[in-house]
Amino acid sequence: MRRKTARQTDRREFLANVGRGMLVAGVGYSVAIELGLSPLLAEEGTESLSFGSLEPLVALMQETSVERILPTLVERIRGGADLRELVAAAALANARTFGGEDYIGFHTFMAMSPAWFMARSLPDQRRPLPILKVLYRNTRRLQEQGGRAHEVLRSVQPTPLAVGQSTAEKIREAVHRRDLGSAEGILVSATAASPDDAWNELLATVQESTEVHRVVLAYRAWDMLALVGRARAETMLRQSLRYCVKEEDYASRHSEPRTLLPKLLDQYGLIGKPRGTRQADDRWIDRMSQTIFDSTPPQAGDAVAAALAEGMAPEAVAEAIGLAANQLVLRDAGRAAGQAQPNKPLGSVHGDSIGVHACDSANAWRNIALASNHRNCMASLVLAGYQVALDRVHRGGKFLEWKPRPYEEQLAALETRDGETLLKELDGAIREQNQDRACALVHRYGASGYEARPVFDLLLKYAISEDGALHAEKYYRTVSDEFAATRPAFRWRQLVALARVTASEYGQPAPGYAEACELLRLS
């Protein structure tokens, strides 16, 4: 008998969930109980979630001490363990334990898919490093919070809706009431029937606030399905939903998006208009990004809505938004004395800085827009423009007065255009934590016509070795995405910003990194 592959098992599990979910929705919950279908989705709402063939590995992630996790994982890797499977199991362990409600926990979850992305750019021997770094962080937080004894996500009873009821509206109403049980029951039922539909219905709630974690967690939860499988969409999406419930008090106090978004969608007729296909030239992109950056939040949302109504391609609008967010990294004066912390000192811009947060949010909105239906594509881009302007205005700083890097005096001080010399000097600038010089070196390298990969490889080394205050992996992936999606005239701005953040975060080694290198026998 042939052994089933993981993909075949996952597909069979997914199809079974879909079929049973549709039957539950069709016959009603009470009839489903009589038919013996309820344990799949509910188990009376008290059972721990179980993840099939991945369950032993998920349990290992939750039960292994932080002192033993790296030796245990390296031993498994040497035995042929699939890195992709390790990341998937860690993501499920994280979701089951924290459910999107723990600050360090959900930041660690959001770093997992980027760590997998980073690993694929490395030579075979070094490939486990970014994954081991993040999994060490995951285990440390799991153990701090009590491991399996602290599990937040448990099975819940599905709440199928009657024919004609709006799933999106019912989820939103439940979140407004802070009624987690009802909200989860509706989402579980919707996900069993169609993960794609459930994702689109959930987005109507996500879009009621532009707080960075609400946005990025939603995208990373959806993105993680590529690793954990679509059969586990319920587990991933429940994290986003629970975050929305937990933050409803904050969101209701900062409620402008709840009135502005429907107004702009209606004013410009965006729901009824087909997706635009007009391509933008460099001048339009530059002007649009500056308009978004200079505007108030409502004005920026309006500018995006108008561009979409005029038929501009969503990809072009997203490109301009990403460049506007990038300006917040290039112009930032750095942390003031009152904002400094031991791992985020005076003048630093890594971690939860205004620019890094804005870029991660803009990138998340872009990916949400391109992975959702027409309504959510339009809404996400309008909110992306709104949020960039909001970050500039409300998080502090004189960004309209500050000049973007690279500075002219730094460029004038460079004595070479030789690519190898520029890379060597970039490495030195990072180690000296000289943010401005690092920016100038990368700009000169790009302007000299060299390929970007050597710069990415150099910055990747430090995105792995340094702690990054929970944001190194996400921001590296954000810049990689934005660089690929931005036209040649402007894309090097993204790498200049990454060089600055890398120089900022240098000097704070990541916990577990040295041990991982030793276990992998890396120099």
What descriptive keywords fit this protein?
disordered N terminus; 523 residues; single chain; mainly alpha; globular
Question: Hey, roughly how much beta strand do the residues contain?
Answer: under 5%
Gap from first CA to last CA: 44 Å
Q: What structural class do you assign from the helix and strand content?
A: mainly alpha
Largest β-sheet summary: none
Give the helix proportion (percent range).
55-70%
Rounded to an integer, what's the Rg over CA atoms? 23 Å
Q: How many DSSP E strands?
A: 0
Spell out the helices and strands N to C.
HHHHHHHHHHHHHHHHHHHHHHHHHHHH
Mean pLDDT: 92
Low-confidence stretches: 1-9, 14-44
How many helical stretches?
A: 28
Overall spatial form: globular
Furnish the topology, listing elements before pairings:
Elements: H1 6-27, H2 29-34, H3 38-41, H4 55-63, H5 66-78, H6 83-98, H7 103-119, H8 128-144, H9 167-176, H10 180-193, H11 195-206, H12 212-223, H13 225-228, H14 233-246, H15 248-253, H16 256-267, H17 282-294, H18 297-309, H19 314-331, H20 354-370, H21 374-394, H22 408-413, H23 419-431, H24 435-447, H25 453-465, H26 472-485, H27 492-505, H28 513-519
Would you kindly provide a brief summary of this structure?
The chain is mainly α and 523 residues long.
